[in-house]
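hey so i finally got around to running the thing on that chain from the lab meeting. sorry it took forever, my laptop kept dying and i had to restart like 3 times. anyway pasting the input first so we r on the same page abt which one it is
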Amino acid sequence: MKNESHIFGLRAVIEAINASKTIDKVFIQKGLQGELAKELMMLIKKEGINYSLVPVEKLNRLTRKNHQGVVALTSPIEFYDLENLIVQVIESGETPLFLILDQLSDVRNFGAIIRTAECTGVHGIIIQKKGGAPVSADTVKTSAGAVFKIPICKVDHIKDAMFYLQASGVQIVAATEKASSPIYDIELKVPIAIVMGSEGKGISNSVLKLADHLAKLPMYGEIASLNVSVACGVFLYEVIRQRL
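ok and heres what got predicted. didnt touch it at all, straight out
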């Protein structure tokens, strides 16, 4: 059965996956047994769908219906193909500006970043299928509807997306406190993709190693870091400043 952005019930979720429904995440009751449960897990792993094993109380909060130990969150948007989007942007004659989110987990931060990205002319946001915040009702609300106005691409691996961008002439700028140069010293008039990391861990080391440039924001207070959505806004508006 379906209820707004939720699909619940073992058979219903299996059918939704087989029908190529865009599913952001599946919540499965811990210890769930049976042939259908096994079939669902095999399908989830085969399709690379994000999932979590949770106590039944979590599922009961998501829906009051008979969920049979499974609730899937569907996406309110259709995701774009990255390769096609890059070609479209390049052919448009505009200077490409992409945003890569490496394991960002908070939906409110995600929504705020989408809103700022739309306001600053970002051509597309790239997220990984597993581990990141879903495009949920909270994301839509926090983005003030911007989620419907900017292309979002889901990829299997962030690093593969970075390789493809670089092969297409797009330089990668990673936002990290580990950088020696501030963002203001980086040339941003060229085609670029900015990488923002997760709230707790920042950008993973394997992703940092692939970046063309590492950049930071100068910090003068006692707190060592900014909220990721705020930092992202500063980075994007420095792009605007340089390109004006």
